[in-house]
Amino acid sequence: MATTADISKIEVSTGIYWVEIPQADLRLLCGCPEDSVKHLMRRGLISPRSTDGVEYESGPNAILLSDTMLQNGAFANQAEFPVLQMLYRQGMLIPGHPNNTGRKPLLIGSPQQVSAQLAYIHRGNYGLLSEAEIRATGMDAVQARELFRMKLAFSFGKLEASEELLDALILEHNDWHEIRAGVEIRRLQLSRFEIRYRDQSLEVDLNLKRFQRYWSPYPLGFHEIKRAYFSVIHSGQGDGWDVNRPSMSSVLCFQGRIYLIDTGPNVVYSLMALGIGVNEIEGIFHTHCHDDHFSGLTTLMRADHRIKHFATPLVRATLFKKLAALMGSEQEDFSAYFEPHDLIFDQWLDIDGLEVKAVLSPHPVETSILFFRTFWDGDYRTYAHLADIAGLDVMQRMINDDPSRPGISQALFDKTKAAYLEPVQLKKIDAGGGHIHGKATDFSQDRSERLILAHNYAPLTQEEKVIGSSAPFGIVDVLVPDYTDSQRHLAEGHLSHLFPELAASQFKKLLNNPIVTFKPGSLILRAGVLSNAIYLLTTGNVEVIRSDAERIIILSTGGMIGEYSGLYDKPSAETYRSISYVHALALPADSYLEFVRSNDLYAEILRLHDNRCFLKTTWLFGESIGPRLENLLARNLRDSQLARDPQTGLLTLPPERLYLIQQGRISKLLNGRPIKQLEAGDFFGEEFILQQNGRGFSYRAEGEVRLKQLPARLLSQAPVVMWKLLESHRETLASCLH
Q: What span, in angstroms and rounded, lies between the C-alpha atoms of 29 and 18?
């Protein structure tokens, strides 16, 4: 902790700082990535308080935003929950509360980031903002009126603008600006600030180092999950305030495919603990847009394929408008990252044997509860996921059939209650209580076989324990068991992608080898050791560690360990260490060698190996790239010779290509002025792929350079690559502005 007599700074977590000046009554949260509130709670910076018998929490009263929207692929600014904590849990908005002094939460930052946060928080509070927006999703006028009346009932009759709830301090250029009571702040560099009070000052740097990550506030351990034919893996039981558990969510496993229900904060940490890679996700089912169910969507935009997104048009419009507000983009842009699939309210949709039905659920934002089923052994086996429901007593008080007034109709109440209490084999419910969450007692007569209570941060009461069960992280409920060899089936699929030119019959001999398991933290292959086996990962994640590299590369399912060492009888250049539980097909090196020789694959494997090694040295492709995408890129990576102006050294860039520097240096210029030096492993030309029309950028070779190129059409199919290109481009633009 940095401290002086009047001002102190605490590093809360990576990229999150706390600056406090008691004499000015200023408590400044610096940096607010996902789950920053939980980090503050863990450090005791948010804690229970009581004044005149009123219980509330302490916490920040201002937020300093990063100048850049993205930091190493993750959103640096997600202020929704910190703001909610100030307004409601501290009491700054509650009438008659001792903390309701007229002072509002304060957002501090660049004009772009403050504007984006205000718009994103507004969407997070209210979702769609008018009957016209609701009708644009396909609802008729009567339905739109009903839904908007419901929204007004939850919002006490009015949708407040974010500016009415929050104050903002815009940091222009590098000038000093007063926060309050003599405390001043100025920007030193991009996302680096100086704060001073009286004759004392300190600096806050919100920039992450190149390969740093924001941390999860809770440990989860590691779990070995058997993937059943149809099962529910419980990946979150808490809410946005639970410091020990992820927010309410589930992972569905169906016929070997992985689906997520909602994407809360730190979803990648949860998946890693379960031995699931991001690139394994087949699809996402979304209930609504609150951050504790939404934040992880930004992480999944970094998958190596377009993940299928299942939601009603009503819910998806809310999600994508909120995401567009956060990014300062258009909601139509997100079809580049996800593959939309519409759910229709009250209708079953068949997804290759898995059926899903969405039912409208009253809530301040557009929300669906979801039912999943498959037919097995003469009957349907059904799972119901009831996230962010409302208590029956709350809805009853809202009943009002006058279409001109806020409220819900008696018909909607009756339909909702019947859907909530529909008996199924397995049901998970929001039992968080309060104005916008469900109550366990509403389900005391529910005839479902197993009822799980979730979306709470306190332990279950005695009364709740009689009604329903808890489900610790990693617990699996199997609805239909799997009697096939799923691991071997996964291995066959991976081999077909590794060797697309070969028939499936060519893999039979390789598949007739054992599936082995590695516990978390196991050394699978050490650097400098000759490998006598080659491992094809079927599930789990593995670290690839090089002593001369500054980062750790993650190898996910479909990747090969020891291939080059085994084929060429050379010691491994890397160490491979399991992160989670890992399952792999163990191939004897001599058997694999015979397979390669008999199919004349030597030359192509060597070319692909060299290209993969080069891609791994780059920031753009060195992490989060699954083996399928990596092999596709390696097959299409080619040497490039660009024309150069003999006078200026400026390069002529043909369109529809991305260029990577293998050797040498290139200067990036904006309107003829050098702004960035690019070296080996860097890339250029992204503004053309992002359709930014160049924006005055040009490139000059500094001496001899060796370049590689990739076609843009491949990159546009890889969300993780497009996401990183966007991050790099926006960071460049932001640095030019500041």
A: 5
